[in-house]
Design brief:
By secondary structure, the protein is α/β, with parallel strands linked by helices. Helices cover 37% and strands 18% of the residues. It is built from 14 helices and twelve strands.
Length: 380
């Protein structure tokens, strides 16, 4: 198995482990959830986020009375007379996000005591549901969140701001109903804290609600580790989560890869940031991480794949990119400048010219990013 094939195999194994429909079906086997479903007077299903379609597919038809699904454009939508679908804006909210939030509030208010609403929440929800409080305009909210995001703020900091500027986040949507809530979360945040995923619209606290995490970045890493072990390799899970500036993290990852022993592979997960500027080109955090790592790996036998679990990295069309010890040399022969691409945050054209993009299209799941790397002493 070649280097790129092995790296792709680890990525596919990780994706399979966080399949949203499979995660929801596992959760439904929980005795507490089964009892809640059995005792309910009426059952509704609310699915929102990049993985809304896949998570909704894990709920058996006939198990609910009504459903509302909110998802981004291009992600495909479930059909059925009992299913209302709203397509809203991502990665920034617009009026469609306001309309979707209004629909969600109406949906929740139509269920009452004795009813149960299954809430299937995944990444992207913060943009898809947007309802600013009185005195705050949509334009102001967008500006403040955009400015904080471009500053390199953490997901915790972004979610705190989003919650303060919303009537539905921070449990606000859940408080619109007297129904019991069962929230199933596909986590894309550090620590897998449900109240942070999508800014926690249905995590209202108390009232006997149930909350479960059905998929996470760490679950994907565990599956990739097992994939590597079955091929006689020695996987090492990086203790530190991917975080901080993408370029800096890429250099740190590159140095760790060069220290791997024979048959060693490195696995890491998390989410970095990129400080954009008005003249930024096409790219994303995993492409930037991969290109920065390539500078460290230059001339070695090491190889690396950095890719987003959702299949779309930043403003690029790719999930991520491959990099190895030959990346810089091959780019020089084509007249490409890695440093210029990094300074302009224009990494997609660089990797595209080398044929090293990983293009998957939307994967239907969303649990942040992964890095898989093969050490220089590992013969593939």
């Amino acid at each position: 198995m070649g280097g790129q094939a092995l790296l792709s195999g680890m990525y596919r194994a990780a994706l399979s482990a966080v399949d949203p429909a499979r995660g929801v079906r596992r959760a439904l086997a929980d005795p507490a959830i089964r009892r809640r479903l059995r005792e309910a007077r009426r059952v509704g299903v609310f699915a929102v986020g990049k993985a809304a379609r896949g998570m909704f597919a894990g709920i058996p038809r006939g198990a609910f009375e009504r459903a509302l699904v909110v998802l981004p454009g291009g992600y495909g939508a479930p059909a059925g007379r009992d299913v209302e679908v709203r397509v809203a804006s991502h990665p920034e909210p617009d009026l469609s996000s306001v309309d979707a939030a209004g629909s969600a509030l109406r949906f929740f208010s139509e269920f009452g005591s004795g009813d149960v609403i299954f809430c299937l929440v995944s990444g992207g929800t913060s943009s898809l549901l947007c309802l600013p409080p009185p005195g705050v305009t949509l334009a102001e909210k967008r500006r403040r969140v955009r400015e904080l995001s471009r500053s390199g703020a953490s997901i915790d900091e972004l979610n705190r701001l989003r919650t303060s500027l919303s009537r539905v986040k921070g449990g606000g949507l859940g408080r619109a109903t007297e129904a019991s809530l069962v929230t199933l979360v596909l986590s894309d945040v550090p620590g897998d804290r449900p109240e942070l995923v999508g800014s926690g619209p249905t995590v209202r606290g108390g009232r006997g609600d149930l909350v479960r995490v059905v998929g996470s970045n760490r679950m994907g890493l565990a599956a990739a580790r097992d994939f590597a072990r079955r091929r006689g390799l020695e996987p090492r899970l990086r203790a530190r989560r991917l975080a901080g500036e993408a370029a800096e993290e890429g250099r740190r990852i590159g140095r760790s890869v060069l220290r791997l022993p024979e048959r060693g592979v490195l696995l890491a997960g998390g989410e970095t940031t990129v400080r954009l500027n008005p003249r930024s080109g096409r790219g994303g955090r995993t492409l930037e991480l991969a290109l920065s790592a390539a500078e460290i790996l230059d001339g070695s036998n090491a190889a690396l794949l950095a890719a987003g679990s959702d299949g779309l990295d930043g403003s690029s069309r790719a999930a991520g990119a491959f990099a190895d010890g030959s990346t810089f040399e091959r780019s020089r022969r084509r007249g490409l400048s890695a440093r210029r691409s990094l300074s302009r945050h224009d990494t997609e054209p660089f990797f595209d010219a080398l044929g090293d993009l990983l293009v998957t299209g939307p994967t239907g799941t969303n649990v942040c990013d992964w890095v898989f790397a093969i050490g220089p002493k590992t013969l593939i």
